[in-house]
């Protein structure tokens, strides 16, 4: 399968199975904005829950936060986004389209849209933040921004959280939320969009201990992605070179995945020093120092940040799980998703639509529903076709009620990946699934 094909196949599979739809599709779509359908929202929620569990629930030293998208406009002056969150753009004097100045075709002097040569004007800065107005008056005083990253909500709440949660440095704050960037060249499906979600964690440490914490977080975050089941040979670190490094960052590594369109970042680990808290202290006039109660030392902590794109990681999960196989002479497409992430954990089928099998299968489906195990009941089409549909949707286990069920109360459980089939008593199915879901 050619690499370009994989992206096309993912776009069509995720649409066909109700994972991802283009935003406002009936109106022709909104540029690079996507909606998550019934299976997509489950996958996304499962991914976010897995992150939250590792980062917040399984630790004592990280607190959660859900800060608002709209913030005081001065936040973005302090953070440097008003001044510096820009891409240089050039405009083609023939078709008037604008492009990032660093696109290879543009650097070569040719317009990617109309093909005209040497028709670009001088590069101009273009701010990537979405602007809007707060309140009834549309003037400069009422201008606010849609946050382009979630991190600033964490910095401005640093002392609120440290005090109320009675945390001592080193500790962290974690948050998952929407961010908006008016990207000039969005694309590659959900890889680069204008509205997306981030799962970010800012870990506040004493200056001097930052290098050690950086290494710990770098290792932990890579381990987490491996633990999701992402193939290790498709993951690597990329260290920012001096010209890639943001001016305030001491050290930065990206975690990259080998997407069909090349190795690309989907999470960043950054040593942001005391830049953000110092800037907010300066711009707000409020002291943002930490006082160490044991030694009476005062200092502005350094921040080690782990910043993961939720949608981009979802693309990693989907691309990594996609397989085309031939089984017993038949082609099948499988999403070999980690069962913890899979939207549906099971599908329930009566082998045939008679002999009381649909009633028995419905009972089993209801038992799964009661146990909050997402499952899908399907009696339409041949058993083979029903398996194929669930393989494509990524459902790990298919449970079939057949003639033997009425005799001995057992059902067949078919494993999506190994295709092995075992018989399990109907009354033990919930426990059987729960055990396997807990073990992954
Ligand atoms: P890129 O260089 O790809 O634009 P970035 O370095 O600007 O990314 P960060 O600001 O470090 O990205 O954001 C952290 C994470 O947020 C990224 O690793 C990515 O997963 C996600 N992210 C950033 N911009 C977008 C976007 N436009 N669409 C989807 N995810 C994004």
Descriptors:
2 domains, Rossmann fold, seven-stranded mixed β-sheet, binds adenosine-5'-triphosphate, BirA Bifunctional Protein, domain 2, globular, 440 residues, alpha+beta, five-stranded mixed β-sheet
Brief account:
This protein has 14 helices and 23 strands.
Instruction: Provide the CATH topology of the largest domain.
Output: BirA Bifunctional Protein, domain 2
Distance between the termini: 30 Å
The pLDDT mean sits at 94
CATH class of the largest domain: Alpha Beta
Radius of gyration: 25 Å
Widest sheet: strand order? 3-9-10-16-13-12-11
> What best-fitting shape do the alpha-carbon axes yield?
globular
Helix share bin:
25-40%
Q: Characterize the main sheet.
A: 7 strands, mixed
Give start-end ranges of low-pLDDT stretches. Answer: none
Structural class determined from secondary elements: alpha+beta
Total of helices: 14
What would you say this structure looks like, in words?
With 440 residues, the protein is of the alpha+beta class. The protein folds into 2 domains: 240 residues, Bira Bifunctional Protein, Domain 2 (BirA Bifunctional Protein, domain 2), CATH 3.30.930.10; 96 residues, Rossmann fold (3-Layer(aba) Sandwich), CATH 3.40.50. Helix content is 32%, strand content 28%. It is built from 14 helices and 23 strands. A 7-stranded mixed sheet has the order 3-9-10-16-13-12-11, sandwiched between helices. A 5-stranded mixed sheet has the order 20-19-21-22-23, with helices on both faces. Strands 5-4-6 form a 3-stranded antiparallel sheet. The protein is globular, with a radius of gyration of 25 Å. It starts with a helix and ends with a helix. The mean pLDDT is 94. The structure holds adenosine-5'-triphosphate. The site of adenosine-5'-triphosphate (ATP) has 15 residues, from strand 10, strand 13, strand 16 and helix 10.
């Amino acid at each position: 399968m050619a690499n370009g094909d994989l992206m096309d196949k993912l776009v069509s599979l995720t649409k066909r199975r109700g994972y991802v739809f283009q935003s406002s599709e009936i109106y022709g779509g909104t540029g690079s904005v996507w909606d998550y359908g019934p299976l997509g929202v489950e996958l996304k929620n499962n991914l976010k829950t897995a992150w939250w569990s590792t980062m917040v629930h399984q630790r004592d030293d990280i607190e959660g936060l859900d800060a608002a998208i709209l913030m005081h406009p001065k936040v973005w002056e302090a953070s440097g986004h008003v001044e510096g969150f820009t891409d240089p753009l050039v405009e083609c004097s023939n078709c008037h389209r604008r492009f990032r100045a660093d696109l290879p075709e543009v650097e070569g002097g040719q317009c990617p849209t109309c093909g005209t040569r040497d028709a670009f004007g001088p590069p101009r800065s273009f701010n990537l933040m979405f602007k809007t107005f707060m309140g009834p008056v549309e003037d400069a005083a009422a201008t606010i921004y849609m946050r382009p990253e979630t991190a600033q909500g964490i910095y401005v709440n640093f002392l609120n959280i440290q005090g109320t949660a009675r945390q001592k440095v080193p500790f962290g704050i974690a948050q998952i939320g929407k961010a908006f960037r008016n990207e000039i060249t969005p694309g590659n499906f959900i890889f680069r969009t204008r509205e997306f979600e981030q799962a970010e964690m800012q870990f506040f440490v004493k200056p001097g201990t930052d290098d050690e914490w950086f290494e710990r977080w770098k290792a932990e975050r890579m381990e987490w992605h491996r633990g999701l089941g992402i193939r290790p040979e498709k993951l690597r670190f990329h260290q920012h070179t001096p010209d890639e490094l943001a001016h305030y960052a001491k050290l930065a590594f990206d975690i990259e995945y080998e997407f069909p369109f090349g190795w690309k970042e989907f999470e960043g680990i950054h040593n942001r020093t005391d830049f953000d808290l110092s800037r907010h202290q300066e711009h707000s006039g409020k002291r943002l120092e930490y006082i160490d109660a044991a030694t009476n030392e005062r200092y502005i902590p350094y921040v080690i940040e782990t910043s993961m794109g939720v949608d981009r990681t979802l693309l990693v999960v989907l691309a990594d799980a996609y397989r085309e196989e031939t089984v017993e002479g038949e082609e099948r497409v499988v999403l070999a998703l980690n069962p913890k992430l899979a939207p549906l954990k099971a599908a329930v089928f009566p082998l045939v639509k008679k002999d009381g099998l649909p009633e028995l299968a419905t009972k089993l489906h209801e038992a799964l529903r009661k146990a909050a195990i997402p499952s899908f009941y399907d009696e339409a089409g041949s058993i083979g076709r029903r398996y194929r549909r669930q393989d494509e949707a990524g459902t790990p286990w298919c449970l079939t009620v057949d003639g033997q069920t009425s005799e001995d109360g057992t059902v067949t459980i078919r494993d999506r990946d190994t295709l092995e089939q075992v018989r399990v008593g109907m009354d033990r199915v919930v426990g059987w699934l729960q055990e396997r879901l807990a073990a992954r």
